[in-house]
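Quick one, tokens below:
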């Protein structure tokens, strides 16, 4: 009577599986839309999309898989897409803003970053893309521009002065006229009280 046994150390495999689970969870829980695509544009297709990407585009789980990234751009985005493809092909990365199209027909502004990645054993080109909704940022930029326009055209003088040093940080043309100077010469100078 005897017994034969065989032991196999699976520590490395378990560590690799745990690492893979961590990366998958990070991918799924990221606060930005993430997609992996394979193939060369324009024939590339999405192989994986995270929950934030699905939320941004108002699509169901898994419904982005198999689609081309170009189908998520608003009309008129073809020139942006062409430039991004060129940048990724030539530089390995592209960063740009674009108008995107949700499946319900609404549009939103997004900051996009695409990077080429080399996956072991994969012959097709792989790209990872981040999509961040910048609608609120665009709203703030437009609001800032409206205020800047209103201040620069105001009939009364406005100057922004550092409270500690009394140095002028900004001045509108009306304030400069009051001081009989140009706005450029006032900025950086102490304000006379």
């Amino acid at each position: 009577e005897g017994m034969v046994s065989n032991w196999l150390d699976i520590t490395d495999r378990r560590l690799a599986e745990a690492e893979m689970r961590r990366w998958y969870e990070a991918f799924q829980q990221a606060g930005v839309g993430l997609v992996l695509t394979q193939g060369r544009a324009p024939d590339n297709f999405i192989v994986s999309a995270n929950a934030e990407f699905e939320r941004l585009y108002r699509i169901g789980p898994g419904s982005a898989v198999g689609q081309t990234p170009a189908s998520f751009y608003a009309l008129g985005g073809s020139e942006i897409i062409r430039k991004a493809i060129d940048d990724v092909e030539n530089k390995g990365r592209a960063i740009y803003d674009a108008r995107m199209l949700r499946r319900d027909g609404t549009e939103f502004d997004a900051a996009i970053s695409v990077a080429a990645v080399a996956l072991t054993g994969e012959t097709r080109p792989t790209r990872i893309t981040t999509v961040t909704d910048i609608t609120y940022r665009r709203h703030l930029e437009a609001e800032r521009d409206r205020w800047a326009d209103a201040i620069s055209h105001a009939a009364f003088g406005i100057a922004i002065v550092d409270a500690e040093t009394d140095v002028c940080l900004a001045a509108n043309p009306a304030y400069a006229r009051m001081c009989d100077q140009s706005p450029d010469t006032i900025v950086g100078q102490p304000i006379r009280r």
